[in-house]
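Quiz preparation item.
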């Protein structure tokens, strides 16, 4: 199955052999990283951590602790003020500007503030990563519609983001982030605007993506989700990261997930992607 994915990606030019991991052990590695905005104080300090391929972490911490800032560093929107960051085994500081977009395209991001394109429909927002990857219209239509149905937006395909509720926009942002099966998914408070039932349904989507090989980091304030799902936690306390630890009380009770239609990641989709 993986062979099929890689084969497809090579064919589409998504997987550039020159960019392959040199250090296959880590998807992300931070060493002694610090970050400040302008001349302000360091908002992230002495950050060390590794993310192994296929891992799933929650990122927690009080408002202002630095979760979104840490994510910005991981999706290459900012450079650290000190220390080093590697993504897919590549030291970012030593990577040429020209090579960064190819690295960045392997990362799916759900932004805290969604960042949807307001002049495009729901369908077109979600189709965008596949179009950029060169997918053909008739191929992508089925997958986009299937995923939007799974997140409960089948009746809003033509709607533009400003006409959607916050929770609906959030689901469009999630669908856009996962549609192209990124190697790394970073979701910043992705369930902040939906009810509990939908929150678990979306988490189920992230877990399924993870089961298929995507490394996942979810920033959240929802302690109940963290405790019930039991993934290891990266905890930020005013800019300092506490090393991952498995949640002791994790997943005692089964997680209620909505039955709904089957997940969109059937073998056919995998072959396609
Ligand atoms: N663009 C910016 N310019 C200056 N300071 C910033 C900027 N963005 C964030 N900060 C500061 O960095 C610190 C961390 O902010 P960040 O947004 O990363 O926190 P957070 O953990 O994501 O918070 P929340 O849970 O509210 O989303 C805060 O002190 C914030 O004021
Ligand atoms: Mg934030």
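Solution:
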């Amino acid at each position: 199955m993986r062979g099929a994915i890689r084969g497809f990606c090579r064919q589409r030019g998504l997987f550039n052999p020159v960019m392959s991991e040199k250090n296959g052990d880590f998807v992300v590695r931070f060493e002694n990283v610090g970050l400040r905005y302008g001349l302000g104080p360091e908002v992230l300090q002495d950050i060390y951590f590794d993310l192994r391929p296929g891992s799933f972490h929650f990122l927690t911490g009080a408002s202002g602790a630095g979760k979104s800032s840490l994510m910005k560093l991981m999706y290459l929107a900012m450079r650290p003020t000190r220390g080093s960051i590697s993504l897919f085994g590549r030291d970012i500081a030593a990577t040429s500007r020209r090579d960064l977009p190819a690295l960045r395209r392997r990362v799916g991001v759900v932004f805290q503030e969604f960042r949807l394109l307001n002049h495009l429909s729901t369908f077109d927002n979600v189709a965008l990563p596949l179009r950029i990857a060169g997918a053909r219209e008739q191929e992508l239509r089925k997958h986009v519609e299937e995923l939007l149905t799974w997140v409960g937006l089948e009746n809003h395909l033509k709607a533009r983001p400003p006409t959607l509720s916050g929770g609906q926009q959030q689901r469009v942002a999630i669908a856009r982030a996962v549609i192209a099966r990124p190697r790394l998914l970073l979701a910043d408070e992705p369930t902040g605007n939906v009810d509990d039932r939908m929150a678990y349904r979306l988490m189920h989507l992230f877990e399924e993506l993870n089961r298929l090989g995507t490394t996942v980091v979810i920033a959240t304030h929802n302690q109940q989700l963290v405790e019930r799902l039991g993934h290891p936690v990266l905890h930020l306390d005013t800019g300092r990261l506490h090393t991952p630890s498995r949640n002791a009380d994790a997943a005692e009770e089964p997680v209620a997930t909505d039955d709904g239609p089957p997940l969109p990641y059937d073998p056919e989709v995998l072959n396609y992607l």
